[in-house]
Amino acid sequence: MRYKLATTLLWLLIGFGFLGGLNVSYANFTGEHLCPHIAGLVICYVVTIAYGLMFVSLFIQKAVLRSSLFLPAWSITFLIALFGTSLELTKGDVCPKTANLIPLCFVSLVLCLITISLFMLGQARKTDTVKVKL
Questions:
Q1: What are φ and ψ of residue 4, in 5° steps?
Q2: What stretch of H or E contains 37?
Q3: What pLDDT was estimated at residue 127?
Q4: What pLDDT shows up at residue 130?
């Protein structure tokens, strides 16, 4: 029961992150809000792609392949969220904000921490249920 709840939450949170990334990317594309750039890359586009890859990984049945796609995509999102949060706390007004003026890098950092916890819970559950033939 806990596994199913964790899996459902993982799908919902990654979907939320992906749709949020699409929304911010669209706002950047139309000029409504501007996303930060690093090394010529628009960060909200990178985050959207990374959330998309995490979402796609959930469709993969083989645990090794799923992890091979999910973990690098998650790492990119996490590092960007951590870097953005650090800059937001030290310099201020770096990350796009929600309607309630909460920096989205804060939201993404919390989302990343919860998703990795849920993903690892699911991975641990799958290895527990593997039957070994002797």
A1: -65, -40
A2: strand 37-38
A3: 54
A4: 47
